[in-house]
Amino acid sequence: MGIIGLVAGLCNGLFGSGGGIIVVPAMTYLLGVKEHDAHATAISVILPLSLVSVFVYFKSNYFDWSMVWKVGLGGVIGAGIGAWLLPRIPVKMLCKIFAGFMIIAGLRMIF
Amino acid sequence: MLLFFIGLISGIVSGMGMGGGTILIPALIFFANTPQHLAQSINLSVFFPTAIIALCIHTKNKHVRYKLAFKIIIAGIIGAFVGSRIAVSMSTLALRKLFGVFILAMGIYEMFRKPKNNRLKNGQ
């Protein structure tokens, strides 16, 4: 469990995202936690880790409050819409589209 | 308005169980010209309000296993500190390339992974 936490914290701090991508599968496959419980528990894990990371970024002056609240407001409303939309849309197809977006973005960032 | 819209889209996507951050960070960089470090710190920050709301709902429904979470968090805090120290010590270009490798890998994983339908039935 220590290793799961360490790796998740490292990724979450280094990339500013992706803690959940590590914690959720680690809990379901390695610890046998139910999928839904794993998702819920992952949030409680990532929350304090993000707090630590934001503090480090903030200390290095990588923080912009005026951007955070605009993006954050959109994020909260979006999460609400997403929860409502989820049972009504072809999630599988959308995930593939966003996966394509991630692949293109990744390639553009590397080269 | 652009920033609000980017937040909105990533918020919607985050509900689909594929981490809003992997969409939000590149969107901020390509569409709003945000520097890499700042985009990452914004993603970490905007996670809090949604996460707290989600956590309250999950706690009420008894889905959060706090004892297990606590054990993971202890080592996690060390990792979080070290990881973000590495990030802030890197140049914008180096971090951008490293992040590119990361989301490329995540994108490929997402593209070929078998979707789990039970998540939808649970009605998250």
Q: Main traits of this protein?
A:
heterodimer, A: 2 domains, 83% helix, B: 124 residues, mainly alpha, 6 helices, 79% helix
Mean pLDDT of chain B: 89
Shape label of chain A? globular
Poorly predicted ranges of chain B: 117-124
Q: Biggest β-sheet of chain B, characterized?
A: none
Could you give the distance between the termini of chain B?
28 Å
Amount of beta strand of chain A: under 5%
Please report which band the strand proportion of chain B falls in: under 5%, 5-15%, 15-25%, 25-35%, 35-45% or over 45%. Answer: under 5%
Domains of chain A, number = 2
Note the run of SSEs of chain B as H and E: HHHHHH
Structural class of chain B: mainly alpha
Q: Using CB atoms under 8 Å apart, which protein chain pair has the greatest interface?
A: A-B, 85 and 97 residues
Q: What spatial form of chain B do the alpha-carbon principal axes imply?
A: globular
Question: What value does the average pLDDT of chain A take?
Answer: 93
The oligomeric status of these chains comes to heterodimer
Count of alpha and pi helical runs of chain A = 5
Order of helices and strands of chain A: HHHHH
For the sheet with most strands of chain A, the description reads:
none
